[in-house]
Amino acid sequence: MVIRPHSVVVVFKVVAHFMVAVLVIILLAVVVVQIAVCFMVDPIAAYFRVEEFFLHLLLLFLALPIFPTMLRLLLHLLDIVTLVLPLMVVTIVVIIVILLKTISSLLFPKADIRFHNLML
Fold first, then answer.
1. Is 92:23 a contact under the CB 8 Å cutoff?
2. Dihedral sign of CA atoms 95, 20, 113, 109 in order
3. pLDDT in 10s for each residue of the chain, 120 residues
4. Which segments cross the bilayer (predicted)?
5. Which one, of 26, 86, 36, lies nearest residue 56 by Cα?
6. Any idea where the domains of the chain sit in the sequence?
7. Is 49 exposed, middle or buried (0-12, 13-18, 19+ CB in 10 A)?
8. Is the pTM of this model over 0.85?
9. What 3 state SS string does 14-47 have?
10. What is d(CA 117, CA 41) in angstroms, rounded to the nearest whole number?
């Protein structure tokens, strides 16, 4: 069986786009849950969460056109195996950090609000 480089690149692009889409959906879901919890605990602090949410959304839409160019550059610079594994590890670490942050903000909402009050 002959593996053509083009088919490997196509498979990698599909996997990379899927991972980015899943990461974006998880990020948006986590932020929406955090805002809902914040509205239940303290509506004033929720205002800052909504503001932060829209800022992250804006940054995400500004960064989306950069992803294909970055992937193309990385494909030329690195081997497929050395690129896919770190991407998967980074994605898994980011998901774990987001889940831990969500769980901690659900368990200790007062500490999260105090942090936002310190930032003012």
1. no
2. negative
3. 555 666 666 777 777 777 777 777 777 777 777 777 777 777 776 677 677 777 766 666 666 666 666 656 555 555 455 555 566 677 777 778 877 777 777 776 665 555 555 555
4. 15-41, 53-74, 80-100
5. 26
6. 5-119
7. buried
8. no
9. HHHHHHHHHHHHHHHHHHHHHHHHHHHHCHHHHH
10. 14
Q: How far apart are CA 58 and CA 36, in angstroms?
A: 20
Q: How many helices (H) and strands (E) does the chain have?
A: 5, 0
Residue with tokens 């294909």: 68
- For residue 112, with 0-12 CB atoms within 10 Å meaning exposed, 13-18 middle and 19 or more buried, which class applies? buried
